[in-house]
Structure formats: C-alpha cells, structure tokens
C-alpha cells in the first residue's frame, strides 16, 4: 500500500524533489501538493525576462498543470489553498479553505519572503517586492502609465528589476546603502566597471544612502526621501533588499527554528516524519538563496524519501555565475583575502575586462571575473580541488594552462 506524501510549497525546491522522487520510486507515494500561487511550478530565476518582455509565464513553466495530472499528483493551488495549520498528532494538513490532506511523510518547501524594510509611509500602493509572477505583473502594469521607478537594493535582484523597468521605458534610480554594487559578490573595482556599464544604459545610482520615508498622494507613492534628505520622484518603489526564510508555518507547528527551519544532514526537521528543503531551511547554521544548493537538497531529500537512508546533504562551495543585464560576472570564495594572501589583478578598460585572483600558499581561495567569464569552469576546478598552482603561477591570470600530472 502506498504511503501518503504531502508537499507544502509548489515552487522550485519542492517540485524538484518530487520530480527526482518520481524517477527514483514512482510507486512509493500518493503525492499531494499545496501551493499559494494559481499556477504550476515556474522558474523564478526567469522572472526578469518576463518583466522586460522577452518571455511569457508559459515560457518559464517547469511543470505545467498537465505534468501533475500525468504523474497522478493532487495539486491544490491558489491563495485559498495556502496551508494554515498542520496537526502533527493526527498527521493532517489544513488549508485556508478547509481542504484537509493526511500524510505519512511531509515535505515543507515554503521558500522565502522579500525583506520589506520598515520605512515610514510604506503602506501605500506602488511599494512592493520582486518575488513572484504577481509582482512582475504589477510592475508591468505600472510601467505602462508611470514614469519614475526607484529600486532599493543594489544586489542581483535589484539590478535585474532596474534593468527590466528601464527596458519598459521607466526612468530608474537604484538606491544602495553600501558604497558599491553587488557588495557580496564583487570588490570595489569590479563593481565600478558594472556601475559604469549600467549607467551607460541609462540607470542612475545613489550609493551610500538609504530610504527613510515614502511620501504619497491619494494613497499612492509619489516620492521617497533619502537619508541625506534629498527627494526622488517615485511612482513605484521596489524593495530588493534581500530575502528571509518563510518559517511562520514551521514555528506554528512547533518545529525547531532559528533563522530557518532547522534540518539535519538527511534534511529532516525536529519531527522525523517531516522534511524541509530550500530557502526556508537552516542547515548547520547556514541559510540558502541560490538555486544550486537548493537543487542539491531536493536531490538528497528525494533519495531519503525513496528509502536511500545513507543519502546526506553537505554544503558545497557556491560559485556565483551572474548575468546582470547581459553582463557576465563570476565570483567565488574569499575575493578580498587577508594579510596572508596575495592578489593577481588584470584590468583592461578598453575591453571592459577585470580579473582578480586571491592566492594563499599557492592555492586559489577566491576569484572575480568581470566582462569575460569564458574560462571560469577551469578556475573553479582549481579552487574546488585545492590545486597547488606554483608551476603556472606567473601565467595564471591570463588563460587556462594544463598542469603536468
């Protein structure tokens, strides 16, 4: 007799796990999925091309509704299907409209929420996050009648939103508290290259300041006040200041939570029948925001659910391959280094290429590539395998060279 698996969360993490599980053990479970959005599972990473008109929602679907039917998955999707309670004693999941599903095993994949900063006056129309297809549809609608967009946050998401709205014809200003863009992925010099490139496309920047007040007229945003007291016209404010794990349900259920829902190496929560993966979890003190570790968690979780008891998750070195508005970036490891590190830097202002390698004891511990990332896989292999580069150190920064075995 089949066991009952219920999945809370119809996003990339949960459905990747279900997809992997079906390939490993298709007959083991009757699967029920609850999702808050009225769609199948789509590729959230591809929201930006939808924003600027290169793709539609159907183009970025990973699993359309027919996929659930083909695989005999019961899908409950839409706002009224949001799970509001889990009865761990009787092993039942209850949604907002009263739908009930019993489980033998439960997988929580509730993802994350946009970090909406508590700025005075923010509770008006036109202030929003950039997290799902509904946000994108709102941005597109605003761009058709409004002119001024302000983005709070100079990280990857903020720059993608800025690019999308600029391509929709809006005048865009990015406000970033840090002194340079992508400060978690780039050093000051690489960020300078990026800023100049984006300014040449028409995006304006205010760095080293933040927003202290939202000013509205008729309950709609019209201006923002910056921390240096200047005012910016703003018909829309997109907060792209980061994400926070969505752990409300986990906490209400009484699962162990800190920053995320705490999981062990088998991706089990403090209740051994309940698994959790993705941006809602905390594993060995770490929370997650990139797709590579989330997909790795989905694979391990599927193996666990299929009965492969030895499958265990471990955090791997995460390299960031970014494609911001058509500009190639690569960042990995400790790209600043300490007093015991040496740096190699290559700068070509004409070609717009920047390359920085940080070495410690003749091993690469971090790297940034801007403008040309074609050799990134070779460098990443050296880093992941802790390869001593003494023999090729003087040519290291220019191009890949095969090391003698």
TrEMBL record:
Cofactor(s) the protein needs: FAD
NADH-rubredoxin oxidoreductase C-terminal domain residues: 319-386
InterPro entries linked to this entry: FAD-bd_OxRdtase, FAD/NAD-bd_sf, FAD/NAD-binding_dom, FAD/NAD-linked_Rdtase_dimer_sf, Rubredoxin_C
Origin: domain of life: Bacteria
Family statement drawn from the similarity comment of this UniProt entry: Belongs to the FAD-dependent oxidoreductase family.
PANTHER family attached to this UniProt entry: NITRITE REDUCTASE [NAD(P)H], PYRIDINE NUCLEOTIDE-DISULFIDE OXIDOREDUCTASE DOMAIN-CONTAINING
UniProt protein name: Assimilatory nitrite reductase large subunit
């Amino acid at each position: 007799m089949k066991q009952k698996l219920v999945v809370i969360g119809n996003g990339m993490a949960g459905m990747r796990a279900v997809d992997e599980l079906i390939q490993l053990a298709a007959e083991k479970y009757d699967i029920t999925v609850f999702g808050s959005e009225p769609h199948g599972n789509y590729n959230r990473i591809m929201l930006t091309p939808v924003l600027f008109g290169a793709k539609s929602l159907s183009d970025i679907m990973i699993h359309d509704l027919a996929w659930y039917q083909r695989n005999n998955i019961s899908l409950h999707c839409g706002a009224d299907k949001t799970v509001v309670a889990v009865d761990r004693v009787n092993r039942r999941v209850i949604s907002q409209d009263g739908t009930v599903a019993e489980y033998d095993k439960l997988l929580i994949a509730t993802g994350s929420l946009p970090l909406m900063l508590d700025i005075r006056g923010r509770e008006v129309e036109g202030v929003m996050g950039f997290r799902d297809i509904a946000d994108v549809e709102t941005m597109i609608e605003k761009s058709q009648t409004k002119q001024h967009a302000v983005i709070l946050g100079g990280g990857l998401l903020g720059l993608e939103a800025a690019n999308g709205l600029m391509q929709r014809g809006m005048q865009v200003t990015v406000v970033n508290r840090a002194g340079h863009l992508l400060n978690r992925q780039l050093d000051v010099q690489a960020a300078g290259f990026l800023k100049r490139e984006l300014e040449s496309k028409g995006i304006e920047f205010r760095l080293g300041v933040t927003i202290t007040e939202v000013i509205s007229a008729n309950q709609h945003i019209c201006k923002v006040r910056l921390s240096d007291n200047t005012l910016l016209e703003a018909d829309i404010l997109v907060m792209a200041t980061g994400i926070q794990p969505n752990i409300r349900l986990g906490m209400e259920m009484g699962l162990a939570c800190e920053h995320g829902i705490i999981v062990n190496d088998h991706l089990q929560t403090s209740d051994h029948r309940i698994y959790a993966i993705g941006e809602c979890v905390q594993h060995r003190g770490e929370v997650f925001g990139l797709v590579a570790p989330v997909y790795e968690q989905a694979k391990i979780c599927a193996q666990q659910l299929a009965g492969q008891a030895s499958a265990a998750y471990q955090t791997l070195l995460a390299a960031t391959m970014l494609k911001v508005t058509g500009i190639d970036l690569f960042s990995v490891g400790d790209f600043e280094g300490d007093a015991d590190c040496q740096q190699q830097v290559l700068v070509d202002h004409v070609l717009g290429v920047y390359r920085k390698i940080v070495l410690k004891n003749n091993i690469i511990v971090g790297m940034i590539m801007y403008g040309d990332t074609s050799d990134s896989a070779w460098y990443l292999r050296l880093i992941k395998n802790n390869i001593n580069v003494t023999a090729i150190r003087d040519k290291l920064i220019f191009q890949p060279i095969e090391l003698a075995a």
